[in-house]
Amino acid sequence: MLAAPGARRAIPQENRRKVTVTTHKTVLIPGDGIGPEVADAVREIFEAADAPIEWEVHHAGLAAVDAGDELLPPATLDAVREHRVALKGPCTTPVGKGFRSVNVQLRKELDLYASVRPVRTLPGIETRYSDVDLVVLRENTEGLYAGIENEVTPGVVTSIKVVTERASKRFAKWGFEYCRLRGRERITAMHKANIMKLGDGLFIRSARQVHEEGGYGDVAYDEMIIDAGAMRLVQNPHDFDVLLLQNLYGDVFSDLCAGFIGGLGVAPGANIGDDRAIFEAVHGSAPDIAGKGIANPLSLLMSGVMMLQHMGEKLGAAGCKEAAAMIEAAYERALSDGQKTGDIGGSLNTAGFTKAVIERL
Ligand SMILES: NC(=O)c1ccc[n+]([C@@H]2O[C@H](COP(=O)([O-])OP(=O)(O)OC[C@H]3O[C@@H](n4cnc5c(N)ncnc54)[C@H](O)[C@@H]3O)[C@@H](O)[C@H]2O)c1
Q1: Ligand 1 atom 17: the closest Cα is on which residue?
Q2: Is 108 a catalytic residue?
Q3: pLDDT bracket for residue 95 (50, 70, 90)
């Protein structure tokens, strides 16, 4: 049962420590920018909740380079392959120059082909819409995000959009299975197949085929041209349940949808493959606030809760589902009590919000 708001935990920490629990090794990639700050907050909350996790910390991106390593160290990839789950903070990617996104490389190397980004109204956050509850599913391995670009001649660049039947079908299948697992009723595939007749055409044809031939009649399926769909989405997000999107569309729409519920500070996500998964917030490294101690740790914390649920469901890891439920109840209670960071209308900093959640576990 939940304790009253602000009450101390019922079982003192020293007593709870005496209970023997099996811990599960999990990779933590703190990232850079605000990454390490929000990752520390999550660790603190997980520890206070006695989540049965033993972190193995690895680096990627600028943090790895600063530590004298490669941008994407093989040890980081090997650790995720071995432990099968990771929680990852954001990694900076230079704009218009420099190295290729480490985030994209990680997804590609580990074949984490489906990104899931739930968008749900939280208590205590004032937004334009109430009761939003939708999910953005994003194909994670191809599309324009493949980053295949070529300067044909100075002033002329081609960017190649890769769409394959294999990737489109396995992603659509994953989407329908996800709907079943989570009791979701309808998938809307958004596309621009009126213009990108071949690529986007193949994407929706594949989804349609999986729906018809895969026996997913229990999940409704429809399609919408993405520009009109974008307008309808901002007019009434309640018209949508689950969005099925190619890589770049999914990237844009997940930030847009985060706006429905209070912004990037409260938008969690996961990158899922057949036998591995990396959980990460939708937001980036937020260089404008990095080092100030004011970042909202909730997006990464919510991603951590998704990770615990996944470990309980898919890996049969004992104690994870319970820890997920406990942490979720605690942060929702903190928000309901008006305990919030600045980005969502509160006055707490990262440490203050972390403390507020811990007090409500
Ligand atoms: N998965 C990832 O690692 C990932 C995702 C997106 C962007 N990036 C990278 O992050 C860098 C910065 O990108 P950007 O500025 O476009 O996007 P961003 O998400 O980092 O920041 C956008 C705005 O949201 C705010 N914000 C983001 N997260 C917040 C939080 N937890 N609490 C409070 N405010 C928060 C920032 O302060 C900023 O004003 C870029 O190098 C980009 O490539 C990485």
Answers
A1: 284
A2: no
A3: confident
**What pLDDT digit, counting tens, does each position of 171-226 carry?**
999 999 999 999 999 999 999 999 999 999 999 999 999 999 999 999 999 999 99
**CATH number for the domain including 93?**
3.40.718.10
pTM: 0.93
Predicted pLDDT at 28: 98
Ligand 1 within 6 A of CB of 226: no
Residue 192: active-site member = yes
Query: Left if phi > 0, otherwise alpha if psi is -120 to 50, otherwise beta: which for 262?
Result: left
Expressed as residue numbers, the domain containing 358 is 22-120+268-361
Instruction: Decide whether any atom of ligand 1 lies within 6 Å of the 288 Cβ.
Output: yes
Of 20, 22, 17, 25, which is closest to residue 49 (Cα–Cα)? 17
Same-domain status, 80 and 181: no
Q: What is the dihedral of CA 280, 284, 289, 293, to 10 degrees?
A: 10
The answer to whether residues 170 and 112 belong to one domain is no
Which atom of ligand 1 approaches the CA of 283 most closely?
19
